[in-house]
Amino acid sequence: MRISRVVIHNFKCIRDLSINFEEITGLWEIEGVVGAGKTTIGEAILFSLFGRLGDKPNSSLVTWGESTSKLEMWCSSSNHDIYIQRTISKTYPSTMKVYIDNEYMTSTNKRDIQKRLEQEYYDIPKLMVESLCILSFNGFKSLSSMNTNEVSKFLDQVFGLKIVTEYADKCNKLRLSESSEVKKLNTQLSTQDRQLREYKDFIEHDKVDTTKLDDLQQQKHNIENGLRELNTKQKIKELMEKRNNELQPLQKQQVETTVLGKKVRKDIEMIKKGICPTCGQEISGDHLSEYETNLNNLLSTYKDLQVKIEAIEKSYKELINDIELKDENLRTELRKVDTEISKIDNYISQQKRFSTLTSTLQHNYDETKNNLEVVSKSLSLSEQLYNILTHDTRYRVIRTITPLINQRMLKYMVELGQPYTIELDEEFNCIVHSNSTAENIPISSLSTGQLKTVDMVIILSILDVLLSRVNFNIIFLDELLSNMHEDLRDSMCEILRREVSRNRTVFLISHTKLNNMYLDGHIHVENMDGSASYEVVNT
Hints:
- It is a single chain.
- By secondary structure, this protein is α/β, with parallel strands linked by helices.
- Among the domains are: 2-143 and 470-538, P-loop containing nucleotide triphosphate hydrolases (Rossmann fold); 212-338, Helix Hairpins.
- It has ten helices and 15 strands.
- Strands 2-1-4-5-6-7 form a six-stranded antiparallel sheet, covered by helices on one side. Strands 8-12-13-3-14-15 form a six-stranded mixed sheet.
């Protein structure tokens, strides 16, 4: 893909800008203060090609204070001339028009048009354009001293491995989720298995002879009939009535005897005093013995009556006790039978419940086991894919590119007349070799200037390899030359101009003024009140 021209109107800080890239080729500098809008040209190109800029909403790309933005681009790709026009509105959906070889591309929606552009006409993937169009070295750390994590991030940015990392991260999240699910299912399966064994043990080892149930129920029936026939309360009532009937005459006679005895005892006391108990006249004691004999007879009669009463009470008490004992024995037997019946009934009920629970639990166990097998297989595949993404894919890309980079680095180190050479291993670690001794030199032993040279050669070699493999004519290198001393910047610019910018337009975005003798031109950017002005000057 080669971009020939772009026209930008009200895009971010750019009010109006038109650039004909066929007229400005080679190595160019874009200079200006921080926030002036030096990278905005590259962002406008990306948006013109793909209709989106990262995660930013399109409405945020319209210049502040304006309602619409318009971008036009002329380019060639896959032997076709392409014209793209995009309009961004803060209040309405964005629109686009596309002409292929001067023929208007029709479609039901812009999404389909964009899909056709990327699949049928663009000869470079979106990811590659995004990686190369604006290659940022802002906050760049020396490649020679990067740790493993920093190297990984650098490779993601420069070699377009970010998408691999993103998929690896997604795969890792899925892997961790599936691993957690496997642990959960294993715990669940273990619990279900324990419960199954407990239920089965109950059914197998705590059996109750249910065949006795009919006999026990017959026994209960017989006992209940016995209790009804015994009719304890009624029989005791009848016996008490009969007892009372027998006792009443005797108790009456006893009472009468007691009353008569009291009278005789009173008469005796009066006679002893010489008074007649009948008329009250004085009387001799001649009749006293008669009265005393009568009293003794009454006492004897009373005692005889008491013996008869106690005999009757004892007799009936024994009868009642016998009946009550029979009743208690029957009821004790009934309770025993009821306990046995209840035990069997409870066992049958529990057996039914446990049988149902066992069946349900067995179903759940089988289902959990099947789920475990499915998740385990998925986890195995996720782990395989994760290993492929994190190791095989990355290392294959790195192993393919690293030898090419090493070739370029050897070339540049010889060209610069350095007393040592450098190479990158498969882990992208920088190894320094002494030309005189053929021994490795520790990175830590290099001076600051030597480290800068090493980093410059690595960067140049990476750029050379990347750009040799793509058909794209516009490159933005943001802050590539930051923190380099003047001689090193000049060397970098000279090599970039000679090796990288052929048939391309390479923009060096820098806060430091570069040497014009190595540049084909520069674009000066100034920002006033949020609007950027661009001055394009050929050197």
